[in-house]
Amino acid sequence: MLLSAELIGLICLLALLVLLFSGTGIGISLISVSVLGVFLTIGNFNTAVKLLGTTSYNAIRSYSFGVIPLFVLMGLFASESKSGRELYDAANLLLRRIRGGVAMATVVSNAVFAAITGASIASAAVFSKIAYPEMTRLGYGRKLSVGTIAGSSVLGMLIPPSILMIVYGSVAQISIGKLFFGGIVPGLILTLLYCIVIFFIGKYHPDQIGSKDIYENEEDVEPAYKVLLRPSVFIVLVIIIFGGMWTGYFTPTEAGGVGCFVTLLLMIFKGQFTWPRFWNALMDTGKTSGSILFLLISAQMFSRMLSLSGVINKIGNFVVDLAVAPIVIVLVLCALQIALGCILDSTSIILLTTPIAVPVITELGFDPLWYGVVLIIAVEMGLITPPFGISVFTVHSSLQGMNLKERIGVGEIFQGSVPFLIMMAVLLILVIFIPPLILWLPGTMV
């Protein structure tokens, strides 16, 4: 080794920061830094490049990586089938008599929709167009309306299937199926917390809650069974996918295949299928999956560089030798993830920190599966935290395209998201200090 592990780590970290802040993509940055790190460690540039080629081949050749394009395509088919609208109508009907029920319906329908889409951005875009006009029509305050949409969109990455869980599981080499089930209970708790905060907003700030009934006349109310039956196929699909994985009947990859087939049939049955839409869904799936797989290759190369240079062992030994309780280390890591969420996107944070954090967490005696869900909650807080807040900007962009009478600023959406950000912090504390909230359900899998 030509240089010490500490010096190699410092050089690579500085190089990575320079590349990221210069606007270089996260994948290119990680690969460049990794090749540099291997070169500094062994002193041979050709070997470093050959290791990159080997990593590219080995990193994503596993059959299990088929889960990525399948779940992405399933989410796109679900969006095209207009299932979000049907879920929202059904939730509205069930909650129409509760004060704040329309906002709660946005949260609940987002939670169910998240069980297929796997992406927060998709949820934010879909429900901006569905829920905002309805809430403003019924007299809801603008901040609560946009805050509810942006806040509840994070359920897309917490309630499985989740692209972030797939990325974390791939990098940390954790069962993706168990990660999926680890996110269910926290996702349901967060849904409940969101409904509770809406209830209290309605109690102490009644001006933010619409006073009108969603149906101006009782004659306008469709028979309940019709409204509730429309999204029934979608809900049955969710049950089949997770029931099959839970019982061990099929793997997450096979579940994605089943989901794609059923959501395609759903598109056809609902009259939403056209060849241009089908082709666009395939193209979008290719673009999204290709970018994710490229990022996974770069993350694997980064992880190999850290292991080869000995940086991970140095960091692990340093942290373990600290005279603090292990839970303090977890809290510090979570604070770091939240801070990074203010300047980086969620996938980048997971790719950057997982290769370093997981060995440390494991050395401290924590379950990496538990940490994965904790990490995703902390990272997801960045979706509604300034200045990055990608869910906030997605809501803003979607509303801008609707030609509304009044323009809504990004700052207003951030302000409306604050109560939901606080609830995410509450959930984060709960799962950190009560690990069974995450680990219980995966432990029941066959």
Describe the fold and architecture.
With 446 residues, the chain is an all-alpha fold. It has two domains: 1-59, no CATH class; 60-443, no CATH class. It is 76% helix and 0% strand. The protein is built from 23 helices and no strands. Helix 11 packs across helix 23 and helix 18 (326-341) runs antiparallel to helix 19 (346-363). The longest helix is centred in the middle third of the chain and has 35 residues, at 275-309. The termini are far apart. The model has no long low-confidence stretch (mean pLDDT 84).
User: Low-confidence segments, ≥5 residues, pLDDT <50?
Assistant: none
Residues in β-strands, percent? under 5%
Class from helix and strand fractions: mainly alpha
> What oligomeric state do the depicted chains represent?
single chain
The helix tally amounts to 23
Q: How would a textbook summarize the main sheet? A: none
Specify the overall morphology: globular
Taking all Cα atoms into account, the compactness measure Rg is 23 Å
Please bin the fraction of helical residues. over 70%
Compute the average pLDDT: 84
Secondary-structure element series? HHHHHHHHHHHHHHHHHHHHHHH
What is the number of domains?
2
The total beta strand count reads 0
First-to-last CA distance: 46 Å
Essential attributes:
446 residues, 0% strand, globular
Secondary structure layout plus pairing:
Elements: H1 5-21, H2 26-42, H3 45-59, H4 67-80, H5 83-95, H6 101-117, H7 120-137, H8 142-153, H9 155-158, H10 163-172, H11 176-182, H12 184-204, H13 224-229, H14 232-247, H15 252-269, H16 275-309, H17 311-320, H18 326-341, H19 346-363, H20 368-380, H21 390-400, H22 410-433, H23 436-443
Helix pairs in contact: 1-2, 2-3, 2-16, 3-16, 4-15, 4-16, 5-6, 6-7, 6-8, 6-12, 7-8, 7-21, 8-21, 8-22, 10-19, 10-20, 11-23, 12-22, 14-15, 16-19, 17-19, 18-19, 18-20, 19-20, 21-22
